[in-house]
Amino acid sequence: MNRIYNFSAGPAILPVDVLKEAANEMLDYQGSGMSVMEMSHRSKIYENIIDEAEKDLRDLLHIPDNYHVLFLQGGATLQFSMVPMNLLKNGKADYINTGVWTKKAIEEARKYGDIHVVTSSEDKMFSYIPDLSNLPIREDADYVYMCDNNTIYGTKIKTLPNTKGKVLVSDASSCFLSEPMDVSKYGVIFAGAQKNVGPAGTVIVIIRDDLVRKDIDPKTPIMLRYDIHVENKSMYNTPPTYGIYLCGKVFKWLKKIGGIDAIHQINVQKANLLYDYIDQSKMFFGTVDKNSRSLMNVCFKTGSAELDDLFVKEAKANGYDNLKGHRSTGGMRASIYNAMPIDGVKALVEFMNAFEKKHG
Fold first, then answer.
1. Residue 171 annotated to the active site
2. Cα separation, 297 vs 260, whole angstroms
3. Are the CB atoms for 118 and 260 separated by under 8 Å?
4. Is position 253 annotated as part of the catalytic site?
5. In this structure, which CATH number among 1.10.3630.10, 3.90.1150.10, 3.40.50.20, 3.30.565.10 belongs to the domain 258-359?
6. Active-site annotation holder among 148, 171, 227, 308
7. Mean pLDDT of the 53-82 span
8. Which pLDDT tens digit goes with each residue over 188-225?
């Protein structure tokens, strides 16, 4: 087996143990004589798969009983529409703008209501998280929206915003299950699976019971109604069956290694290794305010576009792939999600050190 160290921001690295299990079950899942890809989502055997996945996720995050767990399609981007379509009552919502994905969410939400940006870090290319302690939240806002971890820029909200009693909605796609999360502090959490949980094509939504409304615009497409998906337990139509199956395997992998607290400790260790090297380097420098740094996406540069390109090229040739930064930021980005082993980060740091000695 010739596995590289894959630092892709998404679709991203999956645990090797999970991939091996899936490979072993590809042709015959637990004596069924068929692959999970082939079985009916209405069958008892698949019902067990999705029920167990939900149970394990509830165990990992200690999800309260008054929250529903949904496995949907359309990625996190479809939630940019579903959230306002289902949650707007007064027609107003307040958004925290910390990157490309919140800008897209704001643009989409404005099709359905009066959307106010209460704070933004766009003035410094989204390189920091603004103060969220006393935001100008409107009294009649239906919810406050944020993106927990900003994949493109490598920033992370460390302290939840003071929503002044309003419902908090979070796009947690790129940090989901990477650290402890008090679900009770949110109204809605959604996460595209392809960064830290499973393959592309599945989005996980955790929604509080009182926010699952029937009194929304009757013209809302049926597939964009949370109440329909809750009533049908994520099976109004054929769900992304294989993606859910793999997410379930990742949940079991996390439980096996000690759960969220355990993986968080590992993630802190990995991030510190990389940030500590960058901070002492004479060639590389971080692009994010130190108080806003992400554990999942580490962004850095050399100061020279040509040297950045050479680093990415030589890194790939040495088995460290997908380190090129997003096209809007340039530089480099190492995404070190849950499944990235600590040895992968150590090896990357060694390569960076060798590169610096060679080209510094």
1. yes
2. 18
3. no
4. no
5. 3.90.1150.10
6. 171
7. 98
8. 999 999 999 999 999 999 999 999 999 999 999 999 99
